[in-house]
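Researcher: Please generate the 3D structure of the following complex. Treat every line as part of one assembly.
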Amino acid sequence: MVEEVRRLLLGRRLRSVEAQDQRLTKTRALGAFGLDALSSVAYGPNEILYVLILAGAVGTRFSLPIALAIAALLAIVVTSYRQTLFAYPNGGGSYTVARENLGTKAGLLAAAALMVDYLATVAVSVTAGVEALIALAPGLDAYRVPLDVGCIVAIMLVNLRGVREAGAFFVLPTYVFLGSMALLMGWGLLRLVTGDLPHLHARPLPATEGVTLFLLLRAFAGGCTAMTGVEAIANGVPLFEDPEPRNAARTLTTLAVLLGALVLGVTVLGNAIGAVPSERAGLIAQIGHAVAGGGPLFWLVQLSTALVLLLAANTPFNGFPLLAAIMAQDWYLPRQFVHRGLRLSYYNGILVIGTLAIGLVVVFGGSTHALIPLYAVGVFLCFTLSQAGMVRHWLRVREPRWRIKLAINGLGALVTGLVTAIVVIVKFPEGAWLIALIVPALVVLFARIHRYYQQAGQEVRVWRIRPPEMQRCVHTVLVPIADLNRPAVESLVYACSISERVTAVHICLSDEEKARFRSQWAAWGTDVPLVEIHSPYRLIVEPLLDYIDERNRQEPGELLTVVLPELVPMHWWENALHNQIALRMKLALFTRPGTVVTSVPYHLQC
Amino acid sequence: MVEEVRRLLLGRRLRSVEAQDQRLTKTRALGAFGLDALSSVAYGPNEILYVLILAGAVGTRFSLPIALAIAALLAIVVTSYRQTLFAYPNGGGSYTVARENLGTKAGLLAAAALMVDYLATVAVSVTAGVEALIALAPGLDAYRVPLDVGCIVAIMLVNLRGVREAGAFFVLPTYVFLGSMALLMGWGLLRLVTGDLPHLHARPLPATEGVTLFLLLRAFAGGCTAMTGVEAIANGVPLFEDPEPRNAARTLTTLAVLLGALVLGVTVLGNAIGAVPSERAGLIAQIGHAVAGGGPLFWLVQLSTALVLLLAANTPFNGFPLLAAIMAQDWYLPRQFVHRGLRLSYYNGILVIGTLAIGLVVVFGGSTHALIPLYAVGVFLCFTLSQAGMVRHWLRVREPRWRIKLAINGLGALVTGLVTAIVVIVKFPEGAWLIALIVPALVVLFARIHRYYQQAGQEVRVWRIRPPEMQRCVHTVLVPIADLNRPAVESLVYACSISERVTAVHICLSDEEKARFRSQWAAWGTDVPLVEIHSPYRLIVEPLLDYIDERNRQEPGELLTVVLPELVPMHWWENALHNQIALRMKLALFTRPGTVVTSVPYHLQC
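Model: Done. Output below.
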C-alpha cells in the first residue's frame, strides 16, 4: 500500500539508462534559465525603497541613481560571465571554476556559498510569490506561513517525481510575465508622460534617518538582490543548441538587458506614484494598482509574478541536489546524496533543501523582507569566487587576447568582491551575520567529512589478505536462553550446526526460577553445557555483557558469536507484548568490537 | 553518565531479596490508607454545590439532605466492606474478590474499573491539590497545568525510587489535616451558633434550572466522589498488626466516621456562609476565609489540604503498577509490567499511569470539576463488583450467621449498583460516556492479550524434540558485498568458517561499477562463487530479497543465513556518513520466515 501511494504521488520507477537531456533553443533557454533572474525584480527594487524611505521624501529621490548603479553592476557582471561561458562550455558553475583555478578551499567556499544561496532562493522566492498573491487577496495574509509551506511541499513532491526544467510549463510563464510587465511599464510611462498617473500616497512620510553614505549603501545592498539568478545560464551551457557558448552568451545578454530594463522601469514608476514598501502589496502591485487601476492587467501581472516566483523557487531543487551529489561524489558530503531514487531524482538532496527552506520560512514568519539579508551575501560571494577563478584561468591559459579578458574578469572580481564586502557589513545586524557564521562552518564541515572518509577508506582497504577459504577461524557460540521453548531450541540447533563449541547461557532472576529452568534443561537431556548467571538486580543484558567481557579476558583470541533466539509475531503491534530483550542485546553488542551477532528468527503463526 | 544521573535521581540499585514489608499500627494505617478517602472531602461537597447552584438559592437548600444521603451510603458501604476484611485477610481488592467469586470476566471488569479509577484519582487529586494552592496564591492560576504536570512528574520520580507508603511523611500530614479541619469546623460552628459567621455572597444567584429529581441526582452523583478511597484499607489488610482483620475493620470504621463528619461539616458551614463553587477557591478555602478570615488557620488548612491531596495522588502509583503486575502475571497485560527495576519498583506501571495522568490533566486543562465526571463510575463499579462477589462468597461458604452477612453485602451491592447506574446516566454527557467506552474496551483488550499469549505459548512449547547436537542441518550462507574492503573480507572469512556453501552476492548498479567490482574480485582470487544481480532501478535491498525468494523456490528446504558486513564508526554521529544498508537489510529480512541474519561488525578506529 505504501508502494501504491508512492507510485501515485511520484510516478513509475525509471531505469538508470533513461537519464538523458535535451537541447534548448535560445528562446526556451531564456524562459527556463531566466526565471530566477527575472523574478527577482519582484523584490529587488522593493528593498531599495525599504531603506530609502527611512530618510523620507528626500531619501526616495536617490532610488533612481541606485537602480542605475545596479544596472551598471549587472552590465559588468554579465560581461564578465560571458567569458566564463566560452571558457567552460561544459558548465561553469562557481564551484567548478573556483575549485579548478583557486584550489580546493576556494571550491568548498564557493560550494558553501552556493548552498546558502540556493536555500535563500527557495525561501525568498516562495515568500515573495505568496506575497504577490496576498496583494490580490489580502485575506490570505493570515495564512501566509501555511501557504509558503504548502508551496514548498508541492515543489518538493514535483521534484521527487523528477521534472524537466525546460518544459513548456517553465518557459511559458516567463514570457507571460515579460509580456504583462512590458504592457504595464509601457502604459505607466505613457500615463506618466501625459501627466495622468495618480499619486498613491499624498502625505510625505516623516524621515527617521538622514541621507548618509551608510543609508545609500544599505539601499544599494538591498537592491543587489535583483541580480540573483543571473549565474544560472553559466551552469546550463551544455544544454544549449550548437554552438553552445555563443547561444548561451546571447541569451545571457538578452536576459541582462531585460532585467536591467525591468529594474529601472519599476523604480521610475514606483517613484512617480509615490509608492511605499509594504509586505501586503509589493512595488509591482502598487504600480499595477496605480496604472491599471486593479483591472485585468493588474491581475495578470500579479498572477504571472507569483507564478514565475514559485517556478524560480523550483530552480534550487535541481541545483542543490546536483551540487550535493557532486560534492558527495568527491567525498565532501555524506555518500547518501549520490543515490538516485526510483524516479532518478536525487531524493536526499531534495528532501534536505525542502526541509531547511520550510524551517527558514517558518522561523522568519514568511516575510520576504526579513529573509532578504540572508540572500545577497551568498550570491555575491559566488560571483566573486567565479570571477577571481577566471582571472587565474587567463593567467594560466594565456590564449589570444588574454590580457583584455583578464582585465574584464579582473574588474568583475574586484567589483563583486567590493559588493560582497558592502553587503556583509551593511546587512550584518539584520541577518548577514548568520551567513557569515554558516558559510565558514560549512567549509569546516566539508573538510571534516572528507578527512573522515579518507581515514575510514584507508582503514578498510584490503591488502595482502588471503582468500577467505584459507583462513578458517575457531569460534565459540553463546546462546542466551530465558525459557526452554521452540525459538530457544531452534537457536541451539543452529548454533550446533555452525560450531563445535556451543554454550547455553541462562540469566537467573530468582532461585525458584533457576531451579525450574535447571529441571527443564535436565529433562531435555542435551550435551550442550549450560552456564547459569545469577542476576540479583533483575538485569538481563548487563550480566550477559559482563560474562562476555570475562570470557574475552580469559581467552583473548577467541571469536565469539552470540546467537539470539528472536520471536517474530504476525502483526507488528504484537511486539508490544514481547519484551524485546533480543533487540536490546543486539543494540548493546553492536558497539562492542569483535562479537558477531546472529538472529535466529522464530515466526509465530498465531 | 546516564547511569550516574539515574543513580542520583533514583538511588542505589536494590537486590531482589531486599523486598520486604513492615506491619502498621491502627494509627499509622489510618494516616497511610486514609489519605485518599479523607482528601476527597476537598472536592466532593464542592461538586454537590456546583449542581445545586444551577437552581439558585432554592437549590442550595438541598445540599444538607444530599450530604446526609451520602453519609448514609458511606455507612452502608463501610459496613459491607468490613465483612470483606474478615473474609479476605490476605487482601480483598475488587479484582481478587470479583475474580474469585464471580469468574474471570467480572474480575477483568473490576480490574478495568480499578485502573480507570486509579488514573482518575491521580488526575483529580493533583488538580484539586494545585487548586488548594491557587486559593492561597491566585497568581498561580496561570500556571495551573504546568504545576499539575510538575507534581505528577515529581510523584513519578519518587515512586521510581521506590517509596514506603507508611513512612512518617505519609502519616503525619493526614493528622495535621484532620486537626486543622477539626479546628476550622469547631470554630465555624461556634461562630454559626453565636450568629457571628459572615455571609460571603450577599446577592442571591439567579436560578437557570428548576429543582428536579434529575438535578438532585446529579448533585448526589457529584457528591459521591467524596467516597473515593474508602476501599484502600481492604487491599492493605495484611499490612496491619495482629489481629489484622479486626484492626483493619476498626480503622475502617474510624475512617468512615471522620469522613462523614467532614462531609457534613463542610456542607453545613458552606451553606451558612453562602459559598458558591469556584475553580479558584474551593468550598474549604471559602469556609477558611469566612471563619478564619484568611489568617494562619486558613493557611494551615489550605496547605495541609494540598499536601494530603498530592499524597493521595501518590496512592495509585503503588496500586496501579501492582495491579498491572498481577494482571501481567496472569497474562492479561504485557509481561513487561512484571519486571521490577533496579530499585524494585514496577517502573513500567509507574511510567504508564504517570504518562496517562499527565495526558488527562493537560487535555482537561487542569480543571478538577471537568475531570470529576470520569471519576465516580469506576469507583462505584468496583464497589458493586466487590459486594456482589461477597454475596456469592457467602452463598458458597455458608459459615455461621451467613444469612445476615449475605443480607448486609446484598444491600451494599444493591445500593452501590444503583449508584453506579445513576452516576453513569446523569454524568453521561459530561464525560461518563468516555468511561462507559473505555472500561469495556479494556476488558476486550485484556481478553485478547490473554488469548494471544495462550496461542503463542502453545506454539513455542517444546515436545519431543531431539537434543540440538543430534539435528545437524545443512545451510547455505549469502554474503552481500558492495565493495571488496576489509569488512567484506572479514564477513567472507566468517561465512566460510560456518559453512561449506558460501556465495557472495554483488548488486550491480551500473555496467561500469560491475566491471570494476569484477576485476577487483578476480584480482583477489578466491574460490567463493560470486553472484551478480543487476539493479536497473538502483535499489539494493529489494533485488537481494528477490534473489533470496528465488533460491527459496528452487531449494525449499535450505536454511539460508545472510552474513552482513557492518561498519561501526567510533562516534554515533558518524553513522550519518554511512548508508545504513546493513540496517535496512536486517529490518527487511527480520519479517521473512526462515532466514537467519548474522552481523559481522567491523569497528573503525578513526
